[in-house]
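Supplementary Note 3. Input sequence used for the single-chain structure prediction.
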Amino acid sequence: MLSGCQNASVKNMVIERHNTASRLIMKSLRKGKFGGNIIITGIGSEAQMAQQKLVFPAHVANRFVSQWLLPNLSADKLLSCSRPDAIRILPRQNGHQNDIQALHPLRWDVHFVEVKYCDNP
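The predicted structure, written as discrete structure tokens, is reproduced below.
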């Protein structure tokens, strides 16, 4: 039940455990056919990702939602909005799309990636 603990050290330990697992999952996704279609991550600092040899292209936003994804939200709202551990956008039709932003959003298949832990009974 450490995830419910309010002690700062334990809380930081739980967050880092979550981020480490999330980075391993993103590393595996990056190796797949649509690995370049991850557009947002919220799984720790770029330095922490580099320690696990996880490097994203420049178009991947880290720890905030990009304005082009939600153009109707103000910059303040984008910084304060809740976000998943990662967002991956795939083209609805078969084939590889290098620049997902070039496709109309109606042709997107959006995947939210959220890593969760649960207690064992």
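Helices lie at 8-30, 46-51, 75-80. The chain has one domain: 2-113.
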